[in-house]
Amino acid sequence: MTAYKVPQKELLFILDNLVNYQEHCKMPGFENASADMVEAILPEAAKFFEEVVAPTNWLADTQPAHLENGKVITSPALDGVYQQIIDAGWCSLSGAEKYGGAGFPEVVAVAVHEMLQSANMGFSLLPTLTSGVIHALNIYGSEQQKNTYLANLISGVWSGTMNLTEPQAGSDLSAVKTKAVPAGDHYLISGQKIYITWGDHEQSQNVIHLVLARLPDAPAGNQGISLFLVPKYLINDDGSLGQRNDVKAVGVEHKLGIHSSPTCTMAFGDQGGAIGYLIGPENRGLMCMFSMMNSARLAVGHQGVAIGERAYQQAVAYASERVQGKVQGIDSRAPIINHPDIKRMLLQMRALTEAGRAMSLFTIAAQDRAIHHSDPEIQAQNAQLVEIMTPLVKGWCTEVAMESTSLGVQVHGGMGFIEETGAAQHMRDARILPIYEGTNGIQALDFIGRKCLRDGAVGLQGLLSQMQKTVAKASSKSQRTSKLLASLERAIMQCQDALDYILKNSKKSQTIAYTYMMLFGNSVAYWLLLKLAMAADKQIEQGSKERFCWQKIATTGFFASQILTRNQGYLETIKADSACIEDFNGEDFMTN
Ligand SMILES: Cc1cc2nc3c(=O)[nH]c(=O)nc-3n(C[C@H](O)[C@H](O)[C@H](O)COP(=O)(O)OP(=O)(O)OC[C@H]3O[C@@H](n4cnc5c(N)ncnc54)[C@H](O)[C@@H]3O)c2cc1C
User: Fold this and answer.
1) What is the pLDDT of residues 394-422, one digit of tens each?
2) Residue-wise pLDDT tens digits, 326-375
3) Is 67 a pocket residue for ligand 1 (Cβ < 6 Å)?
4) Is 44 a catalytic site residue?
């Protein structure tokens, strides 16, 4: 087990050079969120998450959340920690000031949230799901609902959940069966939901569930699903907590990872019906829930970054101490960090993590502009960018998180396979990321279907044009970055080639969706990493002697030569004869 250190310099560098935070914070609503303020709070947050939360990670893993006499019990290691997070205001950074939030842009909140995600990923899901509920209420809640729920959700005193999944309705939510029957000013909800993250617990004073359910006369399929707010404790007229609602956890799953987080089976309406309130219009629940899911998908993408960071730090610490074998140029036996193959693995972890972080924060900054920019045209452009980027952030960042955490185990050798080192926990924790919030298979279909084919790839073409501009505008074609720019040009051509191909061969889209998502994810991630490398290069040209700048360029060079080169394989796979997959039917998979 190693300590966790927040990559503060890296976070600030991205805010300065990719997000252009000095301009970003001039948008309306961010008057109290200056760059100086951000520079002041990041070190404070870092100290808190390093010292208070990070040490809980291993302990909470060994004490999984479970059900005891109908009560959800979480690890004693977490006792009091959530309260400290609330007291310090770390959950409410981006909440609207009107409801007691600090009014920072979401990009700052995500930078701070990464610290919690790295410190204890399972625990971080508690505020993550709450943020999703806040997001949905902000858009679709009535004034009365906002006034009743937002302040306590933003402070974190109450937490939120997302109740979509049922045994027969996972990826395909059109099969949702939970019922909602009108009863005066509310609805009575009954049914069962499974796998509900932080579905019940004692960390917060109330749990606000957002639940997908069907009205009695609702049409079948996606068009007949509505969204309801179901509080664990009903709220009295004066805002205080009232009687317990008819909703409870009836099971907590035994899982591969994220043991801090209780993954609950929830029973609604065992006593006649849980009281729920409609959010948004009737039968438009999926649309409303998507606002929450998209925000949660971006958060899951960033979980990939955060767990990759933690695994990387752990691997570096181990490799610096473990002595094994001889290294060319060093007389005595040397720490394994000097072996080229170990350096390769560490660089791979680092390049994937840094590129993922750039991609995630770039997208969150676009989300801020889509909501807060004063110019409606810029809002619309950014909203479209976020739409396109969401499956890439979720899909690519979480696929590479599995790769990074697995490499972290490999760097440890046999010790990586032993639980006590902690490297295995990161790999187990990361394994959920490509599954929840829409599996990566579903993200890939979303990317190629809705985000590419549906509008004839107009939006995606716009993204490629932005990437092309980076090449065209590169004023100082310095020696350090010219080769890196040539790699970007090649990647853009590969994406364009794949895009042209799929527009002509759209029937193949389902078969090649995953590879298509990975090609674009890899290329966009590299583009953003390169933008940071170019900013670092500029600082070197201006006389900076910071080793950080040199490292950024070198890491980008590693990405170009060792990771971006996967693109050629992706492209060939996309264009290859897909009959080798399509000709198989279910029976062909049965053992003879
Ligand atoms: C730890 C954990 C926490 C979770 N938290 C929540 C939560 O808080 N709230 C909530 O509502 N749900 C939650 N879930 C549920 C999660 O979102 C679902 O597990 C996920 O959406 C997949 O659904 P499924 O498990 O039914 O798999 P299935 O839908 O059965 O999918 C199985 C496989 O088939 C593939 N597949 C399915 N349909 C298609 C298709 N059309 N095309 C191609 N491939 C397809 C999938 O990609 C997957 O590989 C959680 C799950 C876990 C394990």
Assistant:
1) 999 999 999 999 999 999 999 999 999 99
2) 888 777 889 999 999 999 999 999 999 999 999 999 999 999 999 999 99
3) no
4) no
**What is the three-class DSSP state of 412?**
coil
Does ligand 1 have an atom closer than 6 angstroms to the CB of 27? no
Ligand 1 pocket member 432 (CB < 6 A): yes
Q: How far apart are CA 335 and CA 319, in angstroms?
A: 6
- Contacts (Cβ under 8 Å, ≥6 apart) of 526: 355, 487, 488, 491, 556, 559, 560, 563, 564
DSSP strand pairing (206-213 vs 158-163): parallel
Tell me, using a 6 A CB cutoff, whether residue 205 lines ligand 1: no
Q: How far is the CA of 587 from the centre of ligand 1 (A)?
A: 23
Strand partners, 211: 163, 228
Calculated CA dihedral for residues 310, 315, 318, 319, nearest 10 degrees: -150
User: Which candidate in 106, 321, 437, 587 is catalytic?
Assistant: 437
**Which residue pairs from 230-237 have beta carbons closer than 8 angstroms and sit at least 24 positions apart in sequence?**
230/163, 230/189, 230/268, 230/274, 230/275, 230/276, 230/277, 231/149, 231/206, 231/207, 231/275, 232/200, 232/206, 232/207, 232/208, 233/205, 233/206, 234/275, 235/148, 235/149, 235/206
For residue range 464-478, what is the model confidence (pLDDT) as tens digits? 999 999 999 886 668
| Separation of CA 164 and ligand 1 centre (Å) | 10
Please give the Cα distance from 423 to 216 (Å, whole number).
50
How much distance in Å is there from the Cα of 438 to the middle of ligand 1?
A: 6
Phi/psi of residue 374, nearest 5 degrees: -75, -20
End-to-end CA distance of the chain: 46
User: What angle is formed at CA 94 by the lines to CA 276 and CA 385, rounded to 5 degrees?
Assistant: 90
Q: How far is the CA of 173 from the centre of ligand 1 (A)?
A: 10
Residue nearest to atom 35 of ligand 1 (CA): 441
What DSSP assignment string belongs to 472-523?
HH-----HHHHHHHHHHHHHHHHHHHHHHHHHH-GGGHHHHHHHHHHHHHHH
Here the contacts of 142-150 (C-beta below 8 Å, separation 24 or greater) are 145/229, 145/277, 145/279, 146/99, 148/235, 148/239, 149/208, 149/229, 149/231, 149/235, 150/95, 150/96, 150/99
**Residue of 201, 394, 435 with the most ligand 1 atoms within 8 Å of its CB, for mutation:** 435
Q: What is the pTM of this model?
A: 0.97
